[in-house]
Amino acid sequence: MIRVVYKFLFLSILLFGTSCSLVRDPLDTFSDVTQGVDEKGKVIVFKDKAAVENHLVTIYRQMRDRQEHWYVDALLIGDSHSDNAYAGTTGAEVVPFENNAIEGSNSVLLRDWNRFMEDIARANLLIVNIDSVEDNALTSAERLQMKAEAKIFRALILFDMARMWGDIPVITKTAGDITSETIGEVYDDYFPAQNTELEAYQQVEADCLDAIKNAPNSNPANKTLFSKSVAKALLVKLYAEKPMRDYSKVIQYADELAAEGFDLADNYSDLFGMNAATTDIKMRNTKESILEAQFFSGSGNWATWMFGRDLTNYNNSFTWAKWITPSRDLIKTFQDEGDQVRFSESVVYYAAGWSNYYPSANYPFMFKLRSAFNSIIKLRYADILLLKAEALIQGPSQNLPAAAAIIDKVRARVNLPALSNSTKASQDLMLQALLKERRLELAFEGQRWYDLVRLEKVESVMNAVFAKDSGRLKRIYPFNSSSYRLPIPQTVIDQNPKIVQNPGY
């Protein structure tokens, strides 16, 4: 399987020309993971500074061009596998996320696993080999910064993988070519053993802490960079997860981000809205955005086709049922809360040519990606701020008034009243309020399932929603303690006997 990863890397470089050249003299025989060898037989991965820079561009392009695994599938898991949404279509690969019938044969999970491993291979190629590039034009500072950017990218991928599957292989080096002489040496590199979930998270922590030293500072005019702030935001999310839970560090890094100038955007619509002419989005690089992929005319965001209409091309690709249909339970929660602002930015109704879940004449769609030019926001400050509130509710230095002030700030932006005094006085009620606030604030951003997992609410919430949501498909399997992890693709297990399936699958 890892061999396939490197084959893909080589083919991508060859076909798309976004990475290093493979045919420059004096290099003569290249392999899957090298540019070739020099006249002395020394293996060359990156010939010069330009080759490294091109490879870093390839890494950054994954945030823009490869949206299936880190965005489209993330919403399927985060929202349709929770109470926020239905699968949307009748496709066999997506329905199991709605009715809890996911198995190791699921093609979505196999695609995600393979794409994640390809991403890690790209990051490792730079991290492992940049220091050996013999080009004086590549300064020590540039080497450290590029390596830091690649480590942040690797940390983002490992974090997503660990949250999905728990125990995963943590690969931090590149594999050499397989020959009859080397097969014994490289076998474990191509067929690695699983690391524990804790070990995976520890690698995320190590990558982020190391990257903070040399990554670029956050640029208010360009939130597409793997910056120090991205590493800090990922640490906030990491330290909220149970295996690494340290709520004092959640607060520490959330406060550091605030000190760097991150804050809630003035208007919720600044995050997802379009200009009056619907020819471009309202804003990019808001003060709330920490990491986003950006799209412009000529290089639009195709993922909008998966969820609804592209408002810059209204009838484009609107002939087939879309993924991530808002659930009746989520819509009712918006309505019961009187949350019109976030509801209007999250859900839109159109006439559709299908009626899988609602009458076709008035069909709801996920609305947070409404044009080919909308940014995909991977990390935003509202998420971080609400995780700080969680730390103040759940952590050893409990401070319910401070947590309530955060939640009230988030609510005030969308014209909702402050929490009641009775809620503010109760830890249990505050946790309930936080979970609901995160649900409404972050709907259709791939967060809900992981909130339920992190706070151990999967069984209580998901086993109850099927009875109260009349539109949801019939549940196949009840949610239990094994549901907190997704099944590892069976193909991966078949290829690597060191990989063990998660319990319950």
Short description:
Keywords: Cell outer membrane, Membrane, Signal. The protein has 505 residues and is mainly alpha-helical.
Secondary structure layout plus pairing:
Blueprint: H1 2-16, E1 36-37, E2 43-44, H2 49-65, H3 67-80, E3 85-86, H4 95-99, H5 107-129, H6 140-165, H7 183-190, H8 197-214, H9 228-240, H10 247-259, H11 269-272, E4 289-293, E5 325-326, H12 328-337, H13 340-346, E6 347-350, E7 363-366, E8 376-380, H14 381-394, H15 400-413, H16 421-424, H17 427-441, H18 448-454, H19 458-468, H20 490-495
Antiparallel strand pairs: 1-2, 3-5, 4-8, 6-7
What does this structure look like?
By secondary structure, the protein is mainly alpha-helical. Among the domains are: 221 residues, Serine Threonine Protein Phosphatase 5, Tetratricopeptide repeat, CATH 1.25.40.390; 80 residues, no CATH class. Helices cover 48% and strands 5% of the residues. The strands form 4 sheets. Strands 1-2 form a two-stranded antiparallel sheet. A two-stranded antiparallel sheet has the order 3-5. It has a two-stranded antiparallel sheet with strand order 4-8. The longest helix has 26 residues. It is globular and about 70 Å long. 48% of the residues are buried. It holds the Pfam family SusD-like_3. Keywords: Cell outer membrane, Membrane, Signal. Belongs to the SusD family. This is RagB/SusD family nutrient uptake outer membrane protein. InterPro entries: SusD-like_N, SusD_RagB_dom, TPR-like_helical_dom_sf.
